[in-house]
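2024-03-11 09:14:02 INFO worker-7 job=invfold-0412 stage=load source=structure_tokens
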């Protein structure tokens, strides 16, 4: 891949996070797409909203952020997605995800399928597979995508082993957190250390690149059977909503441009930390801000 602007399609939920302080636009695929756009990529999202005021506001928000909205469907039957957010513990936010909503009914459209075929990268999350209609549409995209990035979000009760196993079998790059890694690993083998779990998952599902986020301790990466680790960055946390999405967007953007993976990992950790210093999931973070934070802590090591 060359260093030109990459064409990246994100698939899945776009919704409103209902916070104690008011509503904020959210949904992991949308958050990732917005950050990818801010990093200079050509990013679009395939999703579905209702023909209600919340849907109109979400479309306006996406347009304001410069994203391609032509693949966002409008459904009259179901309302735009909402999530009730509990922030009693700002470092471990919990979510009640309303179902069914519009993004549970994403249909297969020819133009969107063509965009996925032509894309450099197709990003999808496990949450979008919770409903039969959207999961069936996702399967069609996965059959034609060149490079597939899975963002695991295990939100009870919206997942099961069979579905996650299917997604893992259709993944080139996997991102998940250490709690999710432990849970998924235990489904398939006797769970051991993070490194051992990563190796066994990589072998079992033939995934060459796996990122596991470790909260305030940074992240670990298995890439082509080599391990890389980046320690966390000390910041004043406002909330952690969207930090993982920002991490993923930064990593994908650099990875597709053939940035050395240890550098991509460190930048991704810095990006995730900086987003946690803001309210909401998609603040604009500049490359300069990321570099400034990284300069404070030369934290990546080859392990």
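2024-03-11 09:14:09 INFO worker-7 stage=emit residues=303
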């Amino acid at each position: 891949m060359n260093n030109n602007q990459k064409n990246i399609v994100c698939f899945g939920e776009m919704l409103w996070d209902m916070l104690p302080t008011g509503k904020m636009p959210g949904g992991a695929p949308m958050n990732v797409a917005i950050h990818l756009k801010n990093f200079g990529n050509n990013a679009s999202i395939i999703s579905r909203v209702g023909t209600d005021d919340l849907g109109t506001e979400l479309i306006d928000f996406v347009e304001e952020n410069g994203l391609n909205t032509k693949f966002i469907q409008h459904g009259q039957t179901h309302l735009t997605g909402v999530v009730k957010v509990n922030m009693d513990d700002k470092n471990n936010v919990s979510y009640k995800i309303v179902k069914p909503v519009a993004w549970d009914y994403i249909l297969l459209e020819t133009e969107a399928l063509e965009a996925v075929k032509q894309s450099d990268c197709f990003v999808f999350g496990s949450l979008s597979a919770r409903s039969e209609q959207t999961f069936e549409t996702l399967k069609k995209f996965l059959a034609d995508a060149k490079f597939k990035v899975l963002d695991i979000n295990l939100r009870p009760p919206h997942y099961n082993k069979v579905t996650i196993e299917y997604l893992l079998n259709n993944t080139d790059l996997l991102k998940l957190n250490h709690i999710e890694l432990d849970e998924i690993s235990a489904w398939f083998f006797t769970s051991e250390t993070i490194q051992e779990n990563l190796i066994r998952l990589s072998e079992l599902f033939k995934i060459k690149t796996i990122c596991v986020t470790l909260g305030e301790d940074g992240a670990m990466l298995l890439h082509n059977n080599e391990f890389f680790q980046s320690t966390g960055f000390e910041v004043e946390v406002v909330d952690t909503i969207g930090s993982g999405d920002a991490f993923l967007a930064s990593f994908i953007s650099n990875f597709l441009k053939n940035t050395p993976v240890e550098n991509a990992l460190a930048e991704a950790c810095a990006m995730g930390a900086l987003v946690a210093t803001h309210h909401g999931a998609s603040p604009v973070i500049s490359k300069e801000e990321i570099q400034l934070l990284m300069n404070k802590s030369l934290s990546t090591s080859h392990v």
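2024-03-11 09:14:09 INFO worker-7 stage=report msg="The first helix runs from residue 28 to 38."
2024-03-11 09:14:10 INFO worker-7 job finished
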